[in-house]
Amino acid sequence: MSSTTFADQIREKRVGLALASGFFGFYHHAGVLTALHERGIRPTRVSGASAGALVASMYASGSSPAQIAEDLLAVKRSDFWDAHWPWSRTGFGLLAGHKFASVLSRTLPVHRFEDCDIPLSVNAYDIEEGRTRHLDSGALIPAVRASCAVPYLFSPVEIDGRRYWDGGFAEKTPMVPFFLDSDVDVVIVSYMPPREDRPENKKSGILSFLPSPSSFFADTPPDERRERDKASVRLLRDAGKRVMVLAPKRVWLGPFSLDRAGAAMDQGREGALKILDSNDETLLGAPTLS
Fold this sequence. Notes:
The chain has nine helices and ten strands. It is of the alpha/beta class. Helix 2 (26-38) packs antiparallel against helix 4 (65-74) and helix 6 crosses helix 7. The relative contact order is 0.19.
């Protein structure tokens, strides 16, 4: 086993960062990103799904980890909660998503993929085709909105005549964009186990009556998403890339518990630092990706 820490081992490498989906996991990812910067690790390409897409887009478009943290902690539920008649032209959703688009317009330094400081890709689920698409060009705000559109909470988002839902629906961890990327040596995955993998396997809170989004569709059960993630890890390693999965414990929260956002961010940062400052291989990975 190497005597150098994980941070020391990859600091001079070309790092790709994949931010996985996870309900209201923005704060956790922001904490992990802060930890990477504190250890001198600067991703050269980022990808994101759902909550990960929001943080990835903020970072790729020029916001520092400190600015990302400040912007996220300033968001209140009223800033994105725009309940409407749930049946719209694009499909069913309790929230219209227009307020969320306004948040993105204020917080993203640039509004097109091509204007980002580093390459960015976000996952979104193509409802008609029943598969994940990896969006990396054109207008940024609709793509991030689509990637964050939790089924039945948000209405589907239409882009170029196609309807999209949450990017983590069928592919929780956005590793595919790094498969053929010759400019990336190491892929760091900021991973959050799906809610159905919680030890207590029980939902709580005001939205507990809502089924898991994946339960509505037969073609994307949790087991299948896990198998896709495992296959992605294998393919990256087969391509000669090192994969480091950072999966520290997270603070669970939702739209009605944003008072825990700061704690969630701190937990992500401290958990990631514990891993990065170690060389213990047992700290890397997640049960669902092993």
